[in-house]
Each structure stands twice: as C-alpha cells, then as structure tokens.
Amino acid sequence: MNNNFDINQILYECFETLGLVIEYDLADHPTHQHAIRVGEGCVIIGDKLGLSPRKIQQLYFAGLLHDIGKISIDINLLKKKEKLTESEFQMIQYHSVTGSQIAAMLPELNEIAFWIRWHHEKWDGTGYPDKLYKDQIPVEVQILSTMDCFDSMQTPRFDRDKLSMDESFNIIKNERDTSFNPVIVDLICDMIDKKEITPGKSSDKFIELKHKYLKTPIIVSNDNSWSVIGMTGIYPILRLFARVIDAKHSYTHGHSTRVSILSKYLAGIAGFSQRDLLRVEVAGLLHDAGKISIPLEILNKNNLPDTNEWRIIKNHPVHSSDLLKNISLIKDIASITQQHHERLDGSGYPWGMKESEIDILAQIIAISDTFDAMTSERTYRGKVSAEAAYKEIKKGFGFLYNSELGRILLKTPPVYIQALFDMHLI
Q: What mean pLDDT value characterizes the chain?
C-alpha cells in the first residue's frame, strides 16, 4: 500500500471512483460518467451563484453520489421498458431515501445526505420523497436536481435512448418554474451558450474551477491521526464499494464480503503480517469490482456462457484493476485483484500467469472465491455443500490452488466458516 497518505486526496479518489462504479451498473456506455458530469455541472452553477468553496465542493460529491441508492433497486426493474406500476414506481422513488441513509453512514458525507434524499424534489412541490416546495428546497438541491435531469436525458439507460443536449435543454426549459427553479434553468442555458459544458469530457471551465475550489481539504486536522489510521479510516467506503458491486445481481449478495472475511482468516492462520492481513482483506472485498462492467444478460443466463460471453467475463479482473488504480492508497492491491483467477499451472485468466508469478495474496483469494462461489446459488446451477466444495478444491491442489493454503481451508470445519460469516456480516 502507498505510504504517502493524504486523506483528502484519497477521499476525492474514492468518491470519484464510486461514482464511476455506480454508472457502470446503469448502462451509461461507453464513458460511464453521468455522475461525474452532474458533479461538474453543479460546480459551474455553484460558482455562478457565488456559493462558498465548501458548498461547491460538497455539490461535486453530491453529484457523484446522488444515485447511490439505486443499488437497492432490482436491476430488472430499472431495465423495464413498459410503464411502471404504482408500486414499482414507489420502489424506484425510494432510491433517494436509501441513498441518503448510505451517505449518512459516512461522516464525510453527513452534510450532503439531505441533498441526496431530496434530489428528486421539484420546484412546484410535486417531487419526492417529502414534497418540498420552492425555497423549502435548499439551493444546492435545486442545482443538483436540475443538472441531474438535464444530463440524465443525454445518458443512455436500459429503458430508453439518450437525447441530444438541445433536446434535453428544451425539456427542462418547458418545465421552467414548474419542476425547476427558473434561475437554475437560465444558468444552464448560459453554460450552453458559453460552451462551458463539453459532451464527453471535462470542460475547460470546470478544470479552472476544480483548481479553484476542489482542492479545499475535506477533513481539516492539526495532527497526523489520519496517516496513522490509514486504510482502516476509509474502510467504510471500501465496504460501500463491495455493497454496490454485489448489488448488481441477487446471487452475489454478500459474496465480496464473505471472500474478504475468509481470505483474511486463511492468511491469519498461515501467519501473514498484519499489513498483509489488511491488504488481503481489502483485495477480497474489491476483487470483483470489474464485474460491474459485465452485462446483466450474461450474468443472469440460465446456462453456461458462450465463447464470446466467456471472453467478456474473463476480462473482469482487468476492469477491477483499472477501477482500483484510481485510488492511490490501494494501487498495489489492484494487481492482487487482477490475479485472483490466475491458476498455478497457467490455465487461469486474464494473463495465464504461473506459480510464483501470482501474488501469494491473490492465491489466497482464489481459494476463498472458489469456495464461496461453489457454496452459493448461481443462475445456471445450484449451490453445493461445504464438504463437496472442499473435495473439489482438494482436487486442484498443486496445479490450480496453493496446497498449503488450501489445507488450511480444509482443516476448518464448515460450521466455523459459517460462524465467521455470521460474526462479520453486519
């Protein structure tokens, strides 16, 4: 892990990467940056309104994370093209409440939890969840809701095609003084006229404002406590990553956390250092981050993937590494996640690495991942017992899996593993 610790830089990197992960799951192809575009637009509008640097910074994070509550919604409901029933619409509406609850769990996000809750409130009081009216809605939320709607219409989703910038603006202009504060709508018009919004990339205006506002420390501390806390300090955010990843489909619920718990246990019994215990725990937690890029229709198939689908699946460790490289504190963990499907005899993927070429911590995760995958339900097969999984893993000793590490698993009674999960899955 990187020893050069700047908590503010790390939090920026975590929040930006989390926004990116969320968009992977919402079919924002190919850039997956709706959340980032919303955050950038909010910064520009906040500057035009003369908001304080602190508020502008918070607006950026609110833009990145405003849709985090969608992890609680069945992806099949988000994909539905037909008209939603009233109960289905209520389930989707609740994502803003869920998002605020998630944000409130992280001390650094407490102040924007309200904004996330209210980002679907409307100027005329017809929004949700609390039917706020005009100036009852904080100005930051007015900015967030308008920018979210404007960019969302330009973003491809499962249930509809994207619109052009002009088409999107005409829609919010028609809802000026109903859904949206007319002042905010006019400011978006000004942004378009001055080319302060650049489709597909950060605009020059945002880059200018980023240097001006977004370097403000998120956490102001006069001691070095954060450098001592290190990765454990951002662990709640990393747990949140795992929750977003596992929420992609029902059968992976809790998978990343279980792999993390079991990997740390095996490493502990094997006598690894405290530093490596933390590294393998975090790598296990985030090993499947790249699966967020696999289309749902592949993950939900009732039979085995075909050749092309298997090629897509095999690339997910590379996507995991690419995502985690964005967070400087855990750059070295990125390579561990990339290797967790490599096998000692070179038959694994994505690179066909062999034996000592494979990081020993990745070898631990390979065993934990295989065990949990076999003992969990899959769309194309049922789960097997722990004893059956033990037998199958034992068959691979020496050429698929590390024998010494594998024997630690086999010596652990299944009831111990279940108790281990029960104690930590909270």
A: 85
